[in-house]
Design a protein that fits this description.
With 127 residues, the chain is an all-alpha fold. It has one domain. It is 75% helix and 0% strand. The protein has 7 helices and no strands. Helix 3 crosses helix 7. The longest helix has 21 residues.
Amino acid sequence: MVERSKINNMDAIKSILQLINKSLAGELPLDQLYVLWPEELAHDKFFDTIYKDVESVVEHYPAKVTSIFGSEDPDKYFKRSFEYRVLLSDKELIQQIINENLELNSDLLLLKRIKLIDSNNKSVDSK
């Protein structure tokens, strides 16, 4: 039998994936992030890091990019930003947690996240 807390956490993790998708699309207002972030994962080191990544994107992009580049396509610059790539890496890792039922060990997930971000940045930089 699956533990009840594991089921609840998986629902919370799926809701985080939805928030990441909304923020990548520029469809997540900051106040909605504060309300919708799963409280049960708020004190976890790994998920706190993901929260800060989402919050940073929602607070600063693409509005900041628009103010810098004016009428040029802000989406183009946003998608080339480091913050965008970090959030894509976060999304990829959250999908792995869901699809592969990865162990929810914050320290291991943080290490995996760093490696994934580094790998994704190298592949983008080499293009």
